[in-house]
UniProtKB/TrEMBL annotation:
Protein name, as recorded: Tc1-like transposase DDE domain-containing protein
Leader sequence residues: none
UniProt xrefs under InterPro entries: RNaseH_sf (IPR036397), Tc1-like_DDE_dom (IPR038717)
GO terms of molecular function: nucleic acid binding
Domain of life: Eukaryota
Residue ranges constituting the Tc1-like transposase DDE domain according to the UniProt record: 19-83
One Pfam family of this chain: DDE_3
Organism annotation: Poecilia latipinna
Length: 122
């Protein structure tokens, strides 16, 4: 999945050459193969303590995707139909949404600092 995620092209394109990747500390994110992938591809990771506030913009993308997939009350008759809709939606995430979320990171971090680690509106 990481190889298909276009991290090596989209990270620098959206955030410049000194970009940093963020993920939470879910078990799959800390797996040996995941860590090796980031090391082999020289991808810098943001240190993300286990109990830190969830600032990962991917949560916003998941919400956007859910709204798109189920737009107008759409229901799916099969798992395959749902899977296809999810993959199509993932393939069509607007670049403008990604750019907006990437550019919001500084504000997100400052808000967490100002709230002493408490809940934010993100």
């Amino acid at each position: 999945m990481l190889q298909r995620a276009s991290l090596m092209t989209e990270g620098p394109r959206l955030c410049g050459n000194d970009w940093v990747f963020q993920q939470d500390n879910a078990a799959v994110h800390n797996a040996r193969l995941t860590k090796e992938f980031f090391q082999e591809n020289n991808i810098t990771l943001l240190d993300h303590p286990a109990c830190s506030p969830d600032l990962n913009p991917i949560e916003n993308i998941w919400g956007w995707m859910a709204r798109e997939v189920y737009k107008n009350g759409h229901q799916f008759q099969t798992v395959d139909a749902l899977r296809e809709a999810m993959f199509n939606t993932w393939s069509n995430v607007p670049t403008s949404l990604l750019e907006t979320l990437a550019s919001s990171m500084l504000k997100r971090l400052f808000e967490v600092i100002n709230k002493n680690g408490g809940a934010t509106h993100y």
